[in-house]
Amino acid sequence: MFPTVRVSFSGCRAEARYAVLLDVVPVDGKRYRYAYHRSSWLVAGKADPPAPARLYPHPDSPFSGDQLRKQVVSFEKVKLTNNEMDKNGQIVLNSMHRYQPRIHLVKVREGGGPITDLSREQHRTFIFPETVFTAVTAYQNQLITKLKIDSNPFAKGFRDSSRLTDFDR
């Protein structure tokens, strides 16, 4: 996922163990389209049925409270897909729909297994309204395409210099 979601925590108990998870939920029940002549997103109808929600545990979880106070937790390895048959643990989204990432801080229970149901866990959920985004399979703006190719480590195949124009070089 680009840009990457990064979070910092404070107020955690130093000796406690915490899992940090991410999920991405629909913002509304609408589908969107991009209007080039207006450079804006317009409602294009009712949303497709959402894919089953997936919790993505940070690969370094669990953390001690002390670790969480001293470092930034980055979800740079999260991958998004529109393939509902995905078996690789990627987060499945519908293209041209709006989504909100959420961060969950879960206090790990002694002997607890994988976290699959937050309602059974002692947790806090953090939502940052500025992270709402529209999922796309192709960027609707060439400047955004260039920004992603230049900045996203997963787009290195697109930086092949033989594909660049004289201006881009």
SSE layout:
Layout: E1 6-7, E2 17-26, E3 30-35, E4 40-46, E5 56-57, E6 63-64, H1 65-70, E7 73-74, E8 80-81, E9 91-92, E10 98-107, E11 123-127, E12 133-134, H2 142-151
CATH class: Mainly Beta
Rg over alpha carbons: 19 Å
How large is the share of residues in beta strands? Answer: 25-35%
CATH architecture: Sandwich
Q: What distance separates the N and C termini?
A: 26 Å
DSSP summary, beta strand count? 12
Overall mean pLDDT: 87
CATH homologous superfamily classification: Transcription factor, T-box
Short description:
The protein has 2 helices and 12 strands. By secondary structure, it is mainly β. It has one domain: Sandwich (Immunoglobulin-like).
Structural features, described:
The chain is mainly beta and 169 residues long. It has a single domain (6-161), classed as Transcription factor, T-box (Immunoglobulin-like, Sandwich), CATH 2.60.40.820. 9% of the residues lie in helices and 31% in strands. It is built from 2 helices and 12 strands, in the order E-E-E-E-E-E-H-E-E-E-E-E-E-H. The protein has helices at 65-70, 142-151, and strands at 6-7, 17-26, 30-35, 40-46, 56-57, 63-64, 73-74, 80-81, 91-92, 98-107, 123-127, 133-134. Strands 2, 5, 6, 10, 11 and 12 form a 6-stranded antiparallel beta sheet that branches. It is globular and about 55 Å long. Residues 1-160 form the T-box domain. GO terms for molecular function: DNA-binding transcription factor activity, RNA polymerase II-specific; RNA polymerase II cis-regulatory region sequence-specific DNA binding.
